Amino acid sequence: MPDSRPIAILGGTGPAGMGLALRWARAGETIIIGSRDAQRAQEAAANIKNKSGDNARVSGMENSAACSAAGLLVLTVPFEGQATLLKQLKPAIRAGSMLIDATVALAAGVGGRASRTLGVWQGSAAQQAAELVPKGVSVAAAFHNLSAELLNGDQAIDCDVIVCSDDAGASQFALTLAGKIPGVRAIDGGKLENARILEQITALLVGLNIRHKGHGGIRITGLPPEAYR
Amino acid sequence: MPDSRPIAILGGTGPAGMGLALRWARAGETIIIGSRDAQRAQEAAANIKNKSGDNARVSGMENSAACSAAGLLVLTVPFEGQATLLKQLKPAIRAGSMLIDATVALAAGVGGRASRTLGVWQGSAAQQAAELVPKGVSVAAAFHNLSAELLNGDQAIDCDVIVCSDDAGASQFALTLAGKIPGVRAIDGGKLENARILEQITALLVGLNIRHKGHGGIRITGLPPEAYR
């Protein structure tokens, strides 16, 4: 597992990216917050350090620089920015990198509802990401269903993370990182194409949150103990 | 709640229908098992009675007769039979009936995988059902994600049932019936259009069951107590 290898969170100044950075910094990971704006990234990194303690290893960089500095990438941008950012970062992404995509194609991105999704030609935002990364970069889909608000708090999170990938290494990367978030159980969800369902679940949870005023998550029940990491 | 009003389970001799019938018969509901074949329906009803005790009120009828005898309908057929059955039953369905649809458009229905779904023009199998029932019949989507094998057992079920409907009455009918299955919590999932996500979750669970050898279900976490019935 990456322990000493830095993890770049691209688009990491948004609520989901900040929450993941906080949890992983607390778990001892080396985190690079990526942003379009290097200064904003550095401010976000300082913010994470404040919350996670002086020993936390968190820095901030412009997204391309973050890609150059890390082979482990996590993408947490709104869907409407995903393709543009990946095309822009293509020259900066190192050969052999692994990318975890957490993008959900919410209709809110085009002025619609956050409880509805857009159809993505490739089947899912994660599959779009897989098409846009340089050859040889492997992609896993994960972390769609974690409440950003809960991630940015201090409590254990009552939610499972399902990981979908066609690559064993990327899958393992995501499963391990998921297991570092207190309360979270990581579950191998099979092929990357299944990401479309994880993405839809986010829209369902958004709808439930609006209707019931909560911070919804999901647990998968009924699997044998060895299915949960 | 319907307590004394009979509930017809159409296509009720399949594993899901039998499991629901068993659980509701045990909860004191009056159940009519519907099937293409009246004799098969009666055998299934006898089977349920055997498992749920002599006081159970369970009978079996041909599907059309079941519709004529009950205003509360639950549809548990494979997707590939859904539209044909609803068209056939249209004259038999009573005005003002409520229908709960549990159909999932698994690709297995056309020779594909049960871990993948087919696209349904209306958005979901439940919305297709809503288009095919007689005017004035209200539709709710529910019970997609309960393991048929667990339903046919004796244990409480570690799974939530999310109910989607555009009609308050149909929604209440489904929420109340869900709450009668030991272990199950019922959650209002909003409009019928959201059924597409419930249907997709079934495919995800099928995939997880194959991969991890389990009987997967889902729990929604993080909502306030009053969201769970």
What would you say this structure looks like, in words?
Two copies of one chain form a homodimer. With 229 residues, chain A is of the alpha/beta class. Chain A is 38% helix and 19% strand. Chain A has eight helices and nine strands. Chain A has an eight-stranded mixed sheet. Chain A binds chain B through residues 115-116, 147, 150, 158-159, 162, 187-190, 193-194, 196-198, 200-201, 203-205, 207-209, 211-224, 226-227, and chain B through 115-116, 147, 150, 158-159, 162, 187-190, 193-194, 196-198, 200-201, 203-205, 207-209, 211-224, 226-227. β9 of chain A pairs antiparallel with β9 (217-221) of chain B.
Number of E strands of chain A: 9
Proportion of residues in β-strands of chain A: 15-25%
In round numbers, the mean pLDDT of chain A is 96
Oligomer: homodimer
Coarse morphology of chain A: globular
Short structural summary:
2 copies of one chain form a homodimer. Chain A has 229 residues and is α/β, with parallel strands linked by helices.
Please write out the topology:
The structure is a homodimer of 229-residue chains.
Chain A: E1 7-10, H1 15-26, E2 30-35, H2 38-52, E3 57-62, H3 63-69, E4 72-75, H4 79-89, E5 98-101, H5 125-132, E6 138-141, H6 148-151, E7 160-165, H7 168-179, E8 185-188, H8 195-212, E9 217-221
Parallel strand pairs in A: 1-2, 1-4, 2-3, 4-5, 5-6, 7-8
Antiparallel strand pairs in A: 6-7
Helix pairs in contact in A: 1-2, 4-5
